[in-house]
Each structure stands twice: as C-alpha cells, then as structure tokens.
Write a structure and sequence with these properties.
Layout lengths: L4 H35 L4 H13 L7 H9 L7 H13 L22 H14 L15 H18 L10 H31 L7 H26 L4
C-alpha cells in the first residue's frame, strides 16, 4: 500500500517539527530562567516555584546539582532568604572590591578589550539581530542578564524563522543566519568570560551555596547549547 508512505513521511516530519519547537521553547525558557534568577534576589514566591519545579522535573542533567540542593533545602533555616539575599549582594552587585567579585558585566572580565569596545560589540550584535533585550542596568548592555535575554529572544525568533508553525516553505538561508548569530554570540561573548566569572564566584564566601550551583549549571548549559547550535548548523548544510 505505497500510497500510505507520503502520509507516514509527512506525519514523521510533523512530529520532528513539534519536537524542535518544544526544544527551542525550552532553550528560550532556560536562558530566561537564569536571567531572572540573576536579575534580583530570590523572594518567597520564587523559592516556592523553584521547589515545585525541583520536585516535579525528574532528572534534569546539568541542572541536577541545583535541583538536589533545592530539594535538600526545601525548608530553609530561619532567615534563609535573607542569607540568600546577602549572597546575592556579595556575588552579583559589586558593592566593594574587598566584599565580592566584580559584577557580571562582560567588559569587566575581558582584560584584552577596552570596556567601550566590548560594550559596542555586544550592542552591535543586538542591532544586527534587531533585538533589544530588557536592560535594567543603566544601558550597560553587556550585563549577563541582558546577554542571556538576548539568547532567549533569538531562540524564540528561530521558531518563527524556521516557519515551524506554518505550512510555508522553509527559508534555509534565514535559518542558517539565525543559528550562526547565536553560535557566534556564545563563542565571542558569553563563553569568552563566564568561566572566569564562575571561578570568581567559587572563590567567594557563599552562605547557602545556591548561587554556586546555579552558576555552574548556567555555564554547563551554555557549553551544551553551543554544541547543539553547531550540530544544528551542520544539519542545515553549514559546517
């Protein structure tokens, strides 16, 4: 019954498209999750949401250490959120040189670049992609939150550029360009400084260790995402 084969092939393609959509949505959500956790101290509502996620998520790969820590510390000690807020201030705000590491701006961790050149290069990436990520840090757009939100937005754009939600013919050139933009941004920006930043975090006193686990998970995710983008580019005919 050969007439059934085209229908089977079409169904398989549709399933693969749905899987790809879910993965792109997951990528965007993960970048957004880390951006949110770094943008402000954890409050009671966020802590409850993290606990619900940790219990329901099952095995989470690179997120497992953070997930395990959350489950183990479900009932924080007295003033637990206050202690986490102290950790947050020490690790992310750069209150004083003797108190914690420099805040997470790319230009502060790129010793081989002038700060203005670094910021200009990041902003140019945003302009080239026609993306303006949320920037709560006085227009210094190379803050880790802005860079993570940029990647989150590009992942969502890829869904629409892939035309995965319609029956339109896919524009392979647009897909390759968008994947290459993400790949390039990780290589030349995020992955050029987050390892040094993570090492500085590890050197600091961290009352409850949550942020150490979180940053380790973030760096692991970015490394894995670069590999995914490389594989994806190869699948679309570019090596």
């Amino acid at each position: 019954m050969g007439w059934e084969l085209p229908g089977i092939v079409a169904a398989q393609k549709k399933i693969l498209m749905m899987i790809n959509i879910k993965y792109l949505e997951l990528r965007s959500h993960t970048y957004g999750l880390f951006a949110g956790l770094i943008s402000q101290p954890i409050n009671e509502i966020t802590w409850q949401q993290l606990n619900q996620w940790a219990k329901r998520a099952g095995k989470c790969g690179f997120l497992t250490p953070m997930q395990t820590w959350i489950i183990k510390n479900e009932k924080l000690p007295n003033n637990g959120l206050t202690h986490m807020a102290v950790d947050y201030a020490r690790l992310f705000t750069g209150i004083a040189q003797e108190y914690g590491p420099p805040p997470p701006y790319e230009h502060l961790y790129r010793e081989n670049l002038e700060p203005s050149s670094c910021r200009t290069a990041v902003i140019q990436c945003y302009k080239n992609s026609n993306v303006k990520p949320f920037d709560p840090y006085h227009n210094v757009s190379d803050h880790i939150v802005s860079e993570l939100q940029y990647m989150s937005t590009l992942s969502l754009k890829q869904i629409h550029s892939d035309n995965l939600l319609s029956n339109m013919k896919r524009d392979e050139n647009k897909i390759v360009i968008l994947i290459s933009e993400q790949q390039s941004f990780l290589q030349h920006h995020l992955l050029s400084w987050v390892h040094l930043w993570r090492n500085r975090i590890r050197e600091q006193k961290n009352n409850l260790s949550f942020y150490s686990y979180m940053i380790d998970a973030l760096v692991c995710f970015i490394e894995q995402d670069l590999k995914y983008l490389g594989d994806n580019n190869t699948a679309h005919g570019k090596t």
